[in-house]
Amino acid sequence: MTVPTLAAPDRARAGDIARRFSSARVLVVGDVMLDQFLIGRVSRISPEAPVPIVQFEREENRIGGAANVAHNIAALGGQVELVGLVGRDTAAAILARELAAQEIPTTGLVDDPSRPTTMKVRVVTDRHQQVARVDYERDDEAGEGVEAALIERARSLASGAGAIVVSDYLKGAVTRRLVASLVAVADQRGIPVLVDPKIPHLDYYGHTTLVTPNNHEAEAATHLRIRTNADVSRAAAAFRERAGCKGVLITRGELGMWLLADGVEGALDATAREVADVTGAGDTVIATLATMMPCGLAIRDAMPIANRAGGIVVGKFGTASVSYDELFGRGAPT
């Protein structure tokens, strides 16, 4: 098939829009996480089992999941509010401290003492090789009272937003009623709702503006193999029908992206020069889209810039963000 190629807006126009980022207000709702890295050197194998011994050197804490989406928006210069679910534990306190360090408000966080704050502890070497990961989490959905609190805070904070992001990691915060309430508010205000999805919740995303599955998720949702551009075109149409959403952006790693939205369909090549870690790349893509759309960019024009941001972040280790200067400053890729 003939593949339409989507081009980025010229650099002058992109820069003009980017200068409006400080006026972009985005609400991020979803599963917040704390990513903890225990970093050390490996020099020998344990005599107790065939596993490496990591001699601890330092610990790093980073904000992940929906909180990483918020971090990316803040790093680009946008204004962000965050709604999510935490426990009443040490991890929640660390997460709040890390958010405050990035000037991200925590008033939208709802605590549930019956569950732990979602935390992923990675043991890695000083060469960034992951040895093991330990997850602290519960994946059952928020109970009725906690869900009501999440909806109330989300509706309240949505009143000033120019875009809403739902960051779904299946850790309990995202429920059918929560998404429906966000869509209702967005429809009243005429603003977009963007979703980073998980396939078990696919029928939650009806009437949202744009859903951003990766290649594997698109295959799982549609039961179609995606190998060619004709395949991805069919899968995008099937995904949109299955989810009941208005638009679909399939992220395809080294194969780039495919957009079906606003009467536009086309491909975009990947921009990454070197891949260090794909963790959180989807967070960066959706955060960039959500920051640009309230500034007047259509999805098709925002997509190439989001693609560029994703290409930058995969060159970094762990959950990371892309700054305004990296994306638009001197020496930024064109």
Write up this protein:
- 34% of the residues lie in helices and 25% in strands.
- The protein is of the alpha/beta class and 334 residues long.
- The strands form 3 sheets. The chain has a 6-stranded parallel β-sheet with strand order 5-4-1-8-9-10, sandwiched between helices. It has a 4-stranded mixed β-sheet with strand order 3-2-6-7. It has a 3-stranded antiparallel β-sheet with strand order 11-12-13, with helices on both faces.
- A hairpin with a 2-residue loop joins strand 12 and strand 13 (264-268).
- The longest helix is centred in the last third of the chain and has 15 residues, at 229-243.
Strand residue percentage: 25-35%
Domain module count: 1
Q: Could you say what the CATH architecture is?
A: 3-Layer(aba) Sandwich
User: Please, what is the CATH homologous superfamily?
Assistant: Ribokinase
Unreliable spans are: 274-278, 330-334
Under CATH at level 1, the class stands as: Alpha Beta
**Shape designation:** globular
Number of strands: 13
Biggest sheet features: 6 strands, parallel
* Average predicted local confidence, pLDDT: 88
Topology diagram in text:
Elements: H1 11-18, E1 25-30, E2 32-45, E3 52-65, H2 66-75, E4 79-86, H3 90-101, E5 109-111, E6 119-125, E7 130-136, H4 144-157, E8 163-167, H5 176-189, E9 193-196, E10 210-211, H6 215-222, H7 229-243, E11 248-251, E12 257-261, E13 264-268, H8 281-292, H9 299-313, H10 324-328
Parallel strand pairs: 1-4, 1-8, 2-6, 4-5, 8-9, 9-10
Antiparallel strand pairs: 2-3, 6-7, 11-12, 12-13
Provide tags for this entry.
UDP-N-acetylmuramoyl-L-alanine:D-glutamate ligase, single chain, 4-stranded mixed beta sheet, 13 strands, disordered C terminus, 6-stranded parallel beta sheet, globular, alpha/beta, 334 residues
